[in-house]
Amino acid sequence: MLDLTAEMAELWASLGAPAAGRARVVQIVAARRGEGASTVARELALHAAKRAGRSVWLVDLDLLASPQHAAIAEASERYGKLGEPAAASPDNSIFFTVQPPLRQADGQAWPNSRYLVAHRVGAARFWVTRFRRDVLKGGQTVHVLPTGDYWNALRKFADVIIVDAPSPERSQAALTVAPFMDQTVLVVAADEADVRAPAKLRDAINGAGGNVAGLFFNRGTVERPGFLKAILP
Question: What range defines the domain where residue 45 resides?
Answer without folding.
Answer: 23-222
